[in-house]
Structures are given as structure tokens and as C-alpha cells.
Amino acid sequence: MKTFYNHLHAQHQGKVEMFRGALVPCFEVPARADHVLAELQRRQLGAVLEPQAFDEAALTAIHSPRYLNFLATAWDQWVALDAANADKDILPSVWPTRTFRTDIEPDNFAAKVGLYSYDAGTPFTSGTWVAARAGANCALSAAQVVVAGDRAAFALSRPPGHHAGADFFGGYCFLNNAALAAQHLRHAGMKKVAVLDVDYHHGNGTQAIFFDRPDVYFASIHGDPRTEYPFYLGHADETGSGAGLGANLNLPLPRGTDYATWAQALETALAGIARFGADALVVSLGMDTFEGDPISGFKLKTDDYLRIGERLAKAGLPTVFIFEGGYAVQEVGVNAVNVLQGFTNP
Ligand SMILES: [Zn+2]
Q: Which of 68, 73, 90, 251 is 20 to 30 A off residue 342, Cα-Cα?
């Protein structure tokens, strides 16, 4: 299995995030990808390649032009306010909730940041746009080799993507890599594409992007949003809207869920994907279901990830794996590569 990786991911290195009322060191760090890369190379699971560069059109297929323009210029705007800002990350502090207007982009920079975000845990840094662009190229390149006939490919990139919507960032995510890959598969002629999100957190961005579309099925197994981030989406009664009705499946599970219960949800998700009749699969591969994850609440163990990979292989679909969350930094490499190994050598 080919892996697409670009070292520019490390340019996105947030200093602090807001967590339980305090600014704390970021959980989403470059070392996460480094550990996965090292484990991939140790097990020689396949070639690690530089991604191809895709143009703006691949991004505007998912993200709004005004949001992309904001991401591309945010850092320069921030430093233009005060040269001393170059030593600080951008963190949102004000948001247009409910009755506020979102159709007008404010001139005020803090207000602009709030318009395009939904939490204070996602710092925007000097290298965020460069890293996010490189990550999107990894996802698109992985989709491209699957279009060309590879059975599967892996986008090893960060920042992750599944919390990012068409026009907002949050949850450590800026560009929705899984959605970009799914859309690329659709453009390349795959009639029906499924996105399976196995990250601990609901993929609210991906769901929102495809919620009214009948051609992209979204299934997610995640911590119950009544208690778990991102809180405001991911309930079982969200099944799609309009032409997309029936093409969205949420399987929320309580904190403390172990592999036996989780694996039953995986069967339900894969049954839904089979009924949908997907031609290809995109897996939002978050590793924060691991029992040792510092910010999550499931109890999956390292060997369970081999079983997940084996089961995904049995689905028999061309598959694009996209690296998402997973914050037990020392273990994230072994766990992620276990999924890929289980998939490759069942
Ligand atoms: Zn997560």
C-alpha cells in the first residue's frame, strides 16, 4: 500500500489550546505523524511517496472560496495587526451563534476568525495553511492512485480534517481531507462513495458537507455527542436530508465502550455501506479510540486495530485511508499501522 506523506505537516505546530478553562500545550503535535511514519518504515508496508500538487479547483469542490481565501491570508492579516503577533498563535475568541449573521464577512480580524471557526482549541499558526495544503495533496494523491487501480492507499498527513466544514475550522482541522478524497473519487467516475469515520469524535464536518447528497454515504462510529466533542452533531437521528436522506448513519457509543461492542457498530456501518452500494471507501482513520488516549473514552487495544484492518479488507472496496486523530503519541504509530497491516495481510 502506498503512503502519501509530506514533511511540511510539521510546519503546523500549535503552541497552546483552550482546555477546561486553561491554555494548555496542544495535543495535536507533529510527533504523531512522525511515529506513524517510523512504524510504516520499520514494517516496510509499502512505498512512502511525496504527494502530487493539486490546484485550487480540488479544494473549491468542497470548501467555499471566501473560507479558502481567509485560510490563505489569515497569518499575514494577523501579523499586520501587530508585528509582535508573529510569536503567538491565532485563537478564536468570539463566534456568531444562532441569531447572528454569517453572510457578511466582518473587517475586524477577531470577528473574521470567529466567523470561520467553532472552538478555541484549534490554533492557527504561521505554518497552518502550508501544512493543510500539503495534507490535502496527500489525501487527493491517495485517492488518485486508487482511481488508477491501487486497491488502497494511505494519506499520512496532519492537521487532521474531519471536523472541518465547507467554511469553518475546528477540532484541530482546517481542510476536510476525507471529503476532498471522496469528492475526487466521484469526479474520477466512481458513482457512489462511502466515507467511514472511525475516529473517536464524530466527523461533523464531513457529515455537514455531504448531508444532502445521495452520492456520498457517511457512516460514523463515535463517542456520544451528549458528552463527547464535538457535542452539537453526531446523534443517531441524523440520517441525511433532501436527496441525501438515508445516506447518513451515526452510531454514537458511550464512554468506556470496548472492542466487542465497537466491532458490532462496525458491522452495522459496513452493512449500511454495502446496502448503499458504494464503489469505493474513504476511511477517516482516527486512532483516539485507543484505551490510552488522553482526551477520549473508548477502550480499544493495540491488537484490535489489526482486526479492524482485516474487517475493512473484507468489505472488498477500493479504499483510501486518511489519518485523523489519535493523541496517545507513543502508541499512535503502532496502532495506525496495525490497521493498514490487517488490511493488507489478513
Ligand atoms: Zn478524534
A: 251
Share the mean pLDDT of the chain.
98
Nearest-angstrom CA–CA distance, 119 and 232: 12
Going by C-alpha positions, the residue among 223, 180, 176, 181 that lies closest to residue 202 is: 223
Tell me how far the alpha carbon of residue 81 lies from the centroid of ligand 1, in angstroms: 33
- 339: part of which helix (H) or strand (E)? helix 329-344
List the shell of residues around ion ligand 1, using CB closer than 5 Å. 199-201, 286, 288, 325
Angle at 172 (CA atoms; ends 105, 87), nearest 5 degrees: 75
End-to-end CA distance of the chain: 14
pLDDT at 189 over 70: yes
pLDDT of the residue at 346: 66
pLDDT in tens, 251-264: 999 999 999 999 99
Q: Tell the burial category of 77 from Cβ atoms under 10 Å away from its Cβ (0-12, 13-18, 19+).
A: middle
Sequence-separated (6 or more) residues with CB below 8 Å from residue 73: none
CA separation for the pair 125, 169 (Å, rounded): 13
Give the C-alpha separation, 15 to 203, whole Å: 24
Q: How far apart are CA 132 and CA 111, in angstroms?
A: 22
CB atoms within 10 A of CB 69: 11
What is the 37 CA–ligand 1 centroid distance (Å)?
19
Q: What is the DSSP letter of 294?
A: T
Give the Cα separation of 195 and 292 in Å (integer): 26
Q: What is the 151 CA–ligand 1 centroid distance (Å)?
A: 26
Could you report the per-residue pLDDT of 15-57, keeping only the tens digit for each?
A: 999 998 999 999 999 999 999 999 999 999 999 999 999 999 9
The Cα–Cα gap between 105 and 255 comes to 38
